[in-house]
Predict the 3D structure of the following.
Amino acid sequence: MAAVCQVTGTTPGFGHNVSHSHRRTKRRFDPNVQKKTYFVPSLGRKITLNVSAKGIKVIDVRGIESVVKDLIAKGVKL
């Protein structure tokens, strides 16, 4: 599964692991992406989204109808 949130668009960040002696090695900071299923009354069915923890909070605040409307406007296939 790709580490991209469908709601917020959050993608992995990149940086370094820094040891005690300050040697640096590449690493990747993945967002906390979860697979969540929501029932959307306007569509009359359930949809499954890959959303980050922040994306879940956005859905709680704005409502699933508003978020789905924006996703459809962006051209995301649900």
Observations:
- The CA atoms of residues 5 and 51 lie 5 Å apart.
- The chain has a mean pLDDT of 95.
- The longest helix spans residues 64-74.
